[in-house]
Amino acid sequence: MIAKIAITPGEPAGVGPDILVQLAQQDWSAQLIAIADPEMLKQRAAMLGLSLEIDIYDENQQATSHKAGRLTVKPVIIAEPCIPGELNPNNGAYVVETLRLACEGNMNGEFQAIVTGPVHKGLINKSGIPFSGHTEYFAQQANCSDVVMMLATEGLRVSLMTTHIPLAYVSKAITYDRVQKITRILDNDLKQKFGIESPKIYVCGLNPHAGEDGHLGREEIDVISPALENLRQEGIHLVGPLPADTIFQEKYLAKADAVMAMYHDQGLPVLKYKGFGASVNITLGLPFIRTSVDHGTAIELAGKSEVDCGSFRAALNHAIELVTNTN
Ligand SMILES: NC(=O)C1=CN([C@@H]2O[C@H](COP(=O)(O)OP(=O)(O)OC[C@H]3O[C@@H](n4cnc5c(N)ncnc54)[C@H](O)[C@@H]3O)[C@@H](O)[C@H]2O)C=CC1
Ligand SMILES: NCC(=O)COP(=O)(O)O
To answer: Transmembrane region positions (predicted)?
Structure first.
């Protein structure tokens, strides 16, 4: 069966559309369905000197694999014409509508995965729509109380205990309950989606030196260790909490199927240092497959043919692979 993959190019003034029209220049084994404004995509392709034929999506037609130089589009009309590199809050609702439709199509089985380009979280909020990230948005749309953000590159997977919240709220968000729920989702998806029979998860502490026996913070003693101990009783293979400044070394990584970081900027700088441009962001715990790029909107590069397509290509390949593995 040929999979239908919904693709949201993200912020129209950013590099998402540039990358999508470039990726459309090659054949793919799945049908790619861009949920976007077709005129905006045509204009971006023309700006980059690429030829692109648009086919308007017909849900009653059987899926056919993507052919180079064409793109199937489920149209969402943009509010105001897009100027690459110029953020326009009047187009914030358009961006969110593309995400809503992609989610709806996955929930009702029309599409088999979502691949998202980068959105500008600040612009969406400026447009009057509270938004902290795709991860949280899709969780809410799919009625999932907890999902996990995981980024993966060759030789390293990093998942996050907390996602897009201010640093000042992180300690309070790391509860006994949260540590258990998030770790169980990670363990389950490593088994189900990645085919790892008995995953080993290495867990970072929150505080310097994982709290130094309570002298530099008590979250490890009061919350993280007891929660991990309970999970070990359930049979989950966990190591830690280990100091975050030394966990990312080969001795541990060679054995780890994933590292769990306590917050966004504890884990992601390491991952991106290792594999920026070739990493994939995967949301675990959703009732559908969702992958994304490792980078943001890079608006200064929009419309200029200078963008690196590696992460978007990897996200698309990974989504197709996950669909194939789970069918
Ligand atoms: N998946 C998503 O929707 C993500 C969205 N963002 C959003 O993107 C916006 C901008 O965030 P920044 O922190 O500035 O990160 P950014 O990733 O947009 O840019 C950081 C640096 O990397 C470069 N860069 C990024 N992507 C590139 C590519 N494909 N090819 C070549 N160079 C590239 C940029 O030119 C810039 O120098 C924010 O609003 C943020 O919320 C950030 C990360 C992920
Ligand atoms: N740093 C990852 C990021 O900001 C992307 O998050 P999301 O929009 O995929 O939730």
So the answer is: none
